[in-house]
Amino acid sequence: MADLTGKRLLLIIGGGIAAYKVLELIRRLKERGVSVRVVMTAAAQHFITPLSVGALTNERVFTDLFDLNDEREIGHIRLSRQADLVVVAPATADLMAKMASGFCNDLASTALMATDKPVLIAPAMNPKMWDHPATRRNVKQLTADGIALIGPEAGEMAESGEAGIGRMAEPMAILAAIEEQLAPAEQPLKGRRAIVTSGPTHEPIDPVRYIANRSSGKQGQAIAAALAAAGADVTLVTGPVALPAPDGVTTIPVETAEEMLFHVEAALPVDIAVMAAAVADWRVAEAADKKLKKTGKTPPKLALAPNPDILATVAGHGNRPELVIGFAAETNDLVKNAKAKLAAKGCDWIIANDVSAKSGVAGGVMGSDSNRVHLVTAAGAGGDDAWPLLSKTEVAARLVARIADHFGDARPRRRDEAEAHPS
Ligand code: CTP
Question: What is the number of domains present in the chain?
């Protein structure tokens, strides 16, 4: 959660039944240390009273443009500019129409015209009013004017029981939108491209049978999601898994190692490659095109052929990503084996998984939600790091923080430079 302490909000409450939900929003904002000043329209005061709002904000509630006291004490210009953000909730069809056309005949609309701060609105109205061409036009205009919208949502209307889009977003969703405006999440990898492999591969024996492994794809998908949250443009090439595709990521489902390699190479060039897939080392040399039958007594012999090593191919590619990261599943000599694998594959970092019984992950790492890893880096490219037992989401977050640090350096070092001049 971002620190919102000391941030200042001007909250304009419009006249709709959803106004009662704004009391909850004010409480949450105050809990987060936000100072909230409120302007209520005349219509808003039919739904909730300035008294209850003032009791929650501990501040005077502003209602009238021509109140001389207001002018002397603060004035609508200062009121609208002393805030870091202006929020309108509920934003009625009437208020939105005024904002879209620049009317200012009361304190709320005047403050909205006078502000030089970002504005976020939480519309709430009857679904027919939301669908009306006039509201459609106003939404388009407000968006073009740089005003952010949260909601409305689908659901049943409090007053009429009608269903459709028009319900004000819930206070917690409005709070999240406010947080995003006041303290936007850092996107240290914005402009970087990344490819992630994940999950098992399925190597066919015949049309109905295959060789596979127990990889769940959880760690790879968590990494893809964390890279995307850090602003990277992410392509995830995943073998068959039972997980929904992560949001904000281009997901390419594949079955075999050869398909995985094809799509990985097609996604190059990228800046970052994280090869988390448990790729089958061998495939059946000649998969049968018809289902194998149990004819005779002797079971069929499966001749195996080696699969391409996707990690090694990417690390040795003419279009090599700047940072190539692999995984290593080890039961013993974790760091020693991981270092050997790092050199053999030519990658920059290895995430060494402790898959032994002493890893502390109940039931084993594969399929579990937690992971104990050791980050091993090429000589001189940064310190090695033993991480404690973490959730796979936390492992992903830590890894992405390390990746962001790497790209945050003034001039990223290529691996050959790092080896020539260890720091
Ligand atoms: N890898 C790959 N393509 C393969 C095999 C592995 O891209 N055909 C990648 C994996 O995604 C992982 C790393 O290489 O990043 C793991 O290497 P691997 O040699 O398979 O090591 P382990 O799975 O640890 O197995 P082993 O110790 O038996 O070699």
Answer: 2
Q: Which domain holds residue 315?
A: 193-420
- Is any ligand 1 atom within 6 A of the Cβ of residue 275? yes
> Tell me: the pLDDT tens digits for 42-60?
999 999 999 999 999 999 9
For 319-341, write each residue's pLDDT tens digit.
Answer: 999 999 999 988 888 888 999 99
Greatest distance between any 2 Cα atoms in the chain: 101
In a domain, 340, yes or no: yes
Q: Is the CB of 219 under 6 A from ligand 1?
A: no
| 204 and 315 share one domain | yes
Which amino acid, one-letter code, is at 316? G
* Cα–Cα distance, 326 to 345 (Å, whole number): 9
pTM of the model: 0.66
Which of 275, 283, 314 has most ligand 1 atoms within 8 Å of its beta carbon, as the pocket-test mutant?
A: 275
Cα-to-centroid distance, 278 and ligand 1 (Å): 7
Which one of 147, 182, 217 terminates a domain? 182
CATH number at residue 264: 3.40.50.10300
Q: What φ, ψ does residue 327 adopt, rounded to 5°?
A: -115, 155
